Prior knowledge:
The structure holds two protein chains of two kinds. Chain A is of the alpha/beta class. Chain A folds into three domains: 14-146, 3-Layer(aba) Sandwich (Rossmann fold), CATH 3.40.50.1980; 155-291, 3-Layer(aba) Sandwich (Rossmann fold); 298-443, Rossmann fold (3-Layer(aba) Sandwich), CATH 3.40.50. Chain A is built from 17 helices and 14 strands. Chain A has helices at residues 18-22, 37-44, 64-69, 72-85, 97-102, 106-115, 132-146, 177-190, 206-210, 227-237, 250-267, 274-301, 316-329, 345-356, 372-381, 396-403, 426-443, and strands at 6-7, 27-32, 90-95, 120-123, 160-167, 194-196, 215-221, 241-244, 307-314, 333-334, 337-339, 366-368, 387-392, 406-409. In chain A, the strands form three sheets. In chain A, strands 9, 10, 11, 12, 13 and 14 form a six-stranded parallel sheet that branches. Chain A is globular and about 70 Å long. Chain B is α/β, with parallel strands linked by helices. In chain B, the strands form three sheets. A six-stranded mixed sheet of chain B has the order 1-11-10-9-12-13, with helices on both faces. In chain B, helix 6 (122-135) packs parallel to helix 8 and helix 13 (286-300) packs antiparallel against helix 14 (303-328). Chains A and B meet through strand 1, helix 2, helix 3, helix 4 and helix 5 of A and helix 3, helix 4, strand 3, helix 5 and helix 6 of B. Strand 1 of chain A pairs antiparallel with strand 3 (106-109) of chain B.
Amino acid sequence: MGAGIIEQERFTCALGAMQSVVAIPKALPILHSGPGCGDNVSEFFSRNKGYAGGSTVPCTNFSEKEVVFGGINKLRELLENSYKILDSDLQVIFTGCTAGIVGDDVASVAEEFRDQGKPVVYVESPGFKSNNFVAHSAVVNAIIDQYVSGFENESTFRSRKNTVNLFASIPYQDLFWKGNLAEYKRLLEAVGLEVNILFGSESKGVKEWQQIPEANFNILVSPWYGLPIVEHLKDLYGQPFLQYPNMPIGANETEKFLNAVVAFAIENGADINELAVRKYLKKEDAAYYAEIEELATFLLEFRYGLPGYVHIIHDASYVLGLSKFLLNETGVIPKEQFIVDDTPEKFQQKIADELQSISEKRDIEVFFLPDAGRAQEKIKSLSHRGKGLIIGSGWDKKLADDRGFDFINAALPTDYRMVLNANYVGFSGGLRLIEDIYSGTLSKFA
Amino acid sequence: MSQIDLSIPEVSIREIRLGSITGYQGTAEDLVEKSCCGHPGNRGRGFSQCAGCSISKAACMVSLIQDAAVIIHGPVGCSSCLHEFEFTYLVNANPRRGIKDPTTRRMYSTNLKETDTVYGGARKLAAAIREVNERTEASAIFVLSSCASAIIGDDIESVCDEAEAEIGKPVVAIFCEGFKSTVWTTGFDAGYHGIVRKLVKPPVQKRKDVINVINFWGSDVFTKWFEPFGVKPNLITPFSTVDGLGHASEAIATVQICPTLGSYLGAALEQEFGVPEIKTAAPYGIIQTDRWFRELGKLLGKEDVAEEVIHQKKEEYLPKIEELRKKLKGVRAYVTAGSAHGHALLNIVGDLGMEAAGASVFHHDPKFDSGFEAADLLSRRVKDYGDVPNYNVCSKQEFEFVNVLNRIRPDILLARHGGITLWAAKLGIPALLVEDEQANMGYEGLVNYGEKVVDALENDEFVKNLSKHAINPYTDWWMEQSPDMFLKEAKKKEVV
Lengths: 446, 496
């Protein structure tokens, strides 16, 4: 272990989870933090501000005075006036390092306002406490405990047999979160389920959050982050959960994912027309592989050099999902892989095993390096035959250029790619990624 | 009396040094008057939105030095903006500064965790400096403080001094924690304070042909401008080298493109090393450009060259400027900027025949470190072109800005910084963001900028369409209130 430093960070501090609130329609984050926290966090996410993020976010802007005397009164005044100035359905107070260290009792302020009937939630999120992969779960659980709980009725728990709550992409941290969440919803509806998607334009906002307890079960698509949410919901409402270890990209994984969901749903008493599911999957599969056949001619006959292997520098769900997809559906071989999401040690072995499980004939080495500068050093020291492909963040573009590799910018932070609602998840996501990879390759020729 | 004291590690903040404020609504003339007699009185707020951080301002002045490494001693979130400087560096290095092979910026977070806030982060920082020294070939390492490391009381200065002795290269502590100043441009001062304390060396030989230019990363217009005077620019601090900064003391003079940026560095170089500052403000607008060239000529003993340059420029550009004036006559422009660049834009508005409908600047410095009244562009603007109504110091408060913009409904928004420009488009108003501030200087700058304004006014289909579909989180109630409703009464402070 080195000094524990991080070069070229690929995630941000706990406060970054304010973007999870920005992603809920008409919800408002409120910061009890230093003056620069919101700005810094927004810049990490390339200024994507949703309904009321970015410069709209109310903030107590701690000065020396609040550091010395505490900032509770300022927070109270800020909240009162936030209701006058901004129109929102849910308010979530986040604490920064300053508030965390001086020990302001934010819980009491939130409670005061809740007692007046305001839909307000608070989360302890000083930057030193955790990162935004971890804090995302804390935010969701805080909303469940402090807001959703007000709408609970025990007799309705799990009453909607065909409804699921889905937890997958972390809003904004996943560059493709909007498109990916929309695609999950579309896919799950296609097999006969209803989905509380909770974030993004497909979400019905707070109304949907209020219905979380009524869902029959939960789906978590992630090898580690988000796990505290589905565990919490299991404790609260008795909802079982299905954990799928990676985002399903392309046909093989999407079918596997949907089959697992359907089996789990039936096991839990959902009413699913299995025949219709089979028909749907067969149709999607055929359409997908018709495109892969078009691709195959190109892959087999292009004369001027295509990427033969890939290094992915991304979070664990992406590294697994992309590796599985690329190996089987494009023939690009996953070489050394780099997971830069600060995966807690207890999950690492399982993730490494999962990655290894995708091929019986090759070793796929994986490095867990939140210090992505080290990942880059490692890549610089490696050499494999043929042309490489790097899938990573904006930081990795120059590395790819310097090595003469192809490059797909699919992670944060980035200043090199514009993403609105494109998706990499699902059948369509796989094809989209193929288009991105080979358009990138071809665009470099004369 | 100078407030620059390089014997102490921490920079004195702008509120104390300059009496800077972040809350005011009135007119430019009134603000100038109040500033002249000391502290204009700051108005606090009963509601506020995310402001800005000194860290990113300090970081932009040190991370773009070609051969520097930067460590932010804080949780990982404090370094979240750094990728933007990597982009800024790589994108501008060659086209604007002729650096053929720009290198990846070496930027680090000490990644402070909860246990560090209990036991202190000094050892972690010492280890980080060692590791960065091993990992890079940086000629100097900058260490930036954060709110967390400041409150837990890490002795950053001592750690840096010890590390410097150990690794044998400058390790510069910069104190720029966000909560310390409500004026985030204090971060520039903090960066410069560290640079002058640790990197700038006493002059070995004075170089009569070099003028320091304190700037960001705009195009280099100075090489060409200085040529007839037989001098060349030393552009600092972005894209300079650690060694080059060391020789900043040898220049014959210092100029700055913006006193909001360079106030502290210019004054510190003069105070410590006797490098005189050009007293008049940056050359934005015709009158100010003439003043600036004349003062440059005077300083170099080449008044005749200055007159010749001015004459030539007038001949070449005045007809084009006149054409633009015809097109822009009566256009109501609203300006938003950090501070002094707003004044610069207001000069340009005046010269191009537009009407200044108002301005929202992020903060106001009633004076500058040099103490020169001539450095104050706003007082010049008022004298040269007249008053500006609706002059607000807004601390980047979007809610005030939206309210005012909605009321005034100017024909165009002229902006210096990102963050709130979107609101013009939401209201169907064309907006023009300055992407290269140096390209707007002088006579040619007026033409360059004026043409862009004409284009922005002409090409308004996008904003007009967007405004029909825009989302507005602000309540109808707020849009109808007076924009200063949440500004509190100014507190009387002693005159600085």
